[in-house]
Design a protein that fits this description.
With 84 residues, the protein is α+β, with helices and mostly antiparallel strands. It has one domain: Ubiquitin-like (UB roll). It has helices at 27-38, 45-48, and strands spanning 2-7, 18-20, 25-26, 55-57, 68-69, 73-78. The radius of gyration is 12 Å and the shape is globular.
Length: 84
Amino acid sequence: MQIYFHGFGATRILSGYMLEIDPLTSIAGIRKKLMQSIEAQEKYASVYDILSTTVFATEQQVFSDEQLIVSDTTLHLLPPVCGG
């Protein structure tokens, strides 16, 4: 499956970023794969730590880490505001 990202605030740099993931991957799994994917890229160093507390959502739903993604989608990245 293809997951596209649309970042807001500090995660805006990840807008348009795409990952290939296995079907039925949890949000926690997507977060982990995204962090692994950008870890060695200097361009994304400023958002690496923020991703551990960023919320993933679509236009209709905010996801918990346990929820599964079952089809291609765009996930919105909602970073914490004011550090929390």
